[in-house]
């Protein structure tokens, strides 16, 4: 998050925006919440019980299962290293990580308390961690995918710049390049990039091959839409286009991807001036209207796509009923985990290029953080070094199905790329030199912009168009006014 150089903490107004923002403060986990397993040991062997496995289906949201009573946050204490690590989609990764920590602690004579749990299992994790920091007994170390901007703004984490500098020297630059925008503020790193991950587009190579189309040549939205129409055969329950514009994370992602591909954006590069109402945005909305509301493209749209949720495209692709979709790599990992025959028919693809030929895509990161006031900082740093060491890290990549990848350039070795032929595409996405910041682009990540998705402005705009309530011009103007209102309420005057 971009900071005012005179004040590195968020204002209360920005913090409130952040807590409602869809991408800025939500717990970005690959698996659903699970009960924690905790092991306390004094230089003891690794836990014999298997760690809790992740959710059984790809992309399962934490809210999809009944939430158990919130767990008590482990208390840190001098002389006992307290570690929390998230659950992993592939249990083998989780087991290797846990065994690495417990084995290292045993060899070093470190007393260890380790818990396997996603942060949301503790209830309001940020509030509880803030209370623990203030009480002087926070856990020492955590592996998670939480918002580092929020954690740093609440003064919950220690400066780990020395570790990141060391790892860059030993293992190459951090990837993706957006990692610094998400975890480096005021010139300091507040989390260690531990792993990288990425979403992608997925296409049914067999269907495209049958139509004489190489899916890797479909490098624009126009080409993908036309190819999706060509491969569609509703009589065989195959619809080419597996992407929705309904109110959902996936829907908002597609809408903003198309807008950005046409040259539109929510703000200018400063992140302070709203620029949404532009000819480029109107053209993008017109394109989406044609896609979802015209007779021409109706044959490529699966039944009910107008009401799809975030899991619908996963289910449809894995069932073999859609030819193209965009998703986190969990959709591929799920196919691999289940030996789904669609896996061998899948082409992993870049995002379509923008009108001016740019690839606006980037990966994400999983983080290692040391909490403010930790009484075992040296031991925590030792464990972090051990986890980043290629001898420890690479076996986790081998078991990770593409969901757990290196966060440092030189760890992307030829041997690692041989694990899966599609890792080469993921490498290209994660190594993209363009600092693509998602919805905020071309600005830095912003709590205020995040809140635009939280109140579903993009999908409501498209609903106004596809129902005939508004023209594309009217809908964009209406959405612009709503965005301006949010910015002005955040203290960013627009006139």
Features of this protein?
19 helices, 2 domains, four-stranded mixed sheet, disordered N terminus
Break the fold down into its secondary structure elements and pairings.
Blueprint: H1 12-20, E1 37-42, E2 81-85, H2 91-108, E3 111-116, H3 125-135, E4 141-144, H4 148-153, H5 161-171, H6 179-183, E5 184-185, E6 188-189, E7 192-197, E8 199-204, H7 205-210, H8 221-231, E9 239-241, H9 249-261, H10 279-293, H11 312-318, E10 322-328, H12 330-337, E11 346-349, E12 364-370, H13 377-388, H14 390-399, E13 405-406, H15 414-417, H16 423-430, H17 447-454, H18 457-466, H19 472-489
Parallel strand pairs: 2-3, 2-4, 9-10
Antiparallel strand pairs: 1-3, 4-12, 5-6, 7-12, 7-13, 8-10, 8-11
Helix pairs in contact: 1-17, 2-14, 9-10, 18-19
What is the percent of helical residues? 25-40%
Determine Rg (CA atoms, Å).
23 Å
Strand content: 5-15%
CATH superfamily of the largest domain: Periplasmic binding protein-like II
> How many discrete domains?
2
The fold-level CATH name of the largest domain is D-Maltodextrin-Binding Protein, domain 2
> Spans with pLDDT under 50 lasting ≥5 residues?
1-38, 40-67
Q: What would you call the shape?
A: globular
Describe, in short, the structure shown.
By secondary structure, this protein is α+β, with helices and mostly antiparallel strands. The protein has helices at 12-20, 91-108, 125-135, 148-153, 161-171, 179-183, 205-210, 221-231, 249-261, 279-293, 312-318, 330-337, 377-388, 390-399, 414-417, 423-430, 447-454, 457-466, 472-489, and strands spanning 37-42, 81-85, 111-116, 141-144, 184-185, 188-189, 192-197, 199-204, 239-241, 322-328, 346-349, 364-370, 405-406. Helices cover 38% and strands 12% of the residues.
């Amino acid at each position: 998050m971009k900071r005012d150089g005179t004040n590195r903490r968020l204002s209360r107004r920005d913090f409130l925006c952040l807590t409602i923002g869809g991408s800025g403060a939500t717990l970005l986990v690959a698996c659903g919440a699970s009960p924690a397993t905790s092991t306390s040991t004094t230089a003891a062997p690794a836990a014999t019980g298997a760690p809790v496995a992740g959710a059984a289906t790809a992309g399962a949201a934490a809210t999809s299962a009944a939430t158990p009573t919130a767990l008590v946050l482990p208390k840190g204490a001098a002389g006992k290293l307290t570690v929390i690590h998230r659950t992993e989609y592939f249990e083998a990764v989780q087991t290797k990580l846990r065994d690495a920590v417990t084995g290292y602690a045993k060899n070093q004579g470190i007393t260890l308390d380790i818990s396997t749990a996603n942060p949301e299992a503790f209830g309001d994790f940020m509030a509880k961690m803030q209370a623990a920091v203030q009480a002087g007994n926070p856990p020492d170390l955590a592996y998670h995918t939480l918002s580092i901007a929020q954690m740093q703004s609440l003064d919950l984490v220690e400066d780990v710049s020395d570790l990141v500098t060391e790892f860059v020297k030993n293992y190459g630059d951090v990837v993706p390049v957006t990692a610094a925008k998400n975890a480096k503020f005021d010139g300091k790193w507040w989390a260690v990039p531990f792993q990288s991950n990425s979403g992608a587009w997925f296409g049914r190579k067999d269907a495209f091959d049958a139509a004489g189309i190489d899916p890797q040549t479909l490098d624009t939205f126009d080409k993908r839409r036309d190819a999706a129409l060509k491969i569609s055969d509703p009589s065989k329950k195959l619809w080419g286009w597996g992407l929705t514009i309904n109110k959902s994370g996936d829907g908002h992602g597609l809408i903003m991807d198309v807008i950005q591909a046409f040259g539109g954006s929510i703000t200018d590069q400063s992140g302070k001036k709203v620029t949404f109402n532009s000819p480029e945005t109107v053209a993008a909305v017109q394109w989406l209207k044609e896609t979802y509301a015209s007779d021409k493209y109706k044959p490529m749209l699966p039944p009910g796509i107008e009401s799809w949720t975030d899991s619908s495209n996963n289910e449809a692709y894995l069932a073999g009923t859609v030819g193209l979709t965009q998703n986190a790599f969990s959709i591929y990992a799920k196919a691999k985990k289940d030996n789904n025959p669609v896996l061998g028919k899948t082409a992993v693809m870049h995002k379509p290029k923008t009108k001016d030929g740019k690839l606006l895509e980037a990966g994400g990161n999983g983080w290692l953080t040391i909490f403010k006031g930790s009484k075992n900082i040296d031991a925590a740093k030792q464990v972090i070094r051990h986890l980043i060491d290629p001898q420890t890290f690479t076996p986790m990549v081998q078991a990770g199905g593409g969901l757990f990848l290196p966060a440092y350039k030189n760890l992307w070795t030829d041997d690692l790329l041989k694990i899966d032929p599609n890792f080469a595409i993921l490498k290209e996405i994660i190594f993209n030199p363009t600092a693509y910041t998602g919805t905020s682009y071309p600005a830095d990540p912003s709590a205020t912009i995040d809140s635009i998705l939280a109140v579903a402005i993009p999908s409501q705009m498209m609903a106004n168009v596809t129902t005939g309530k508004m023209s594309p011009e009217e809908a964009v103007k209406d959405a612009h006014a709503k965005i301006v209102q949010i910015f002005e309420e955040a203290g960013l005057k627009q006139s």
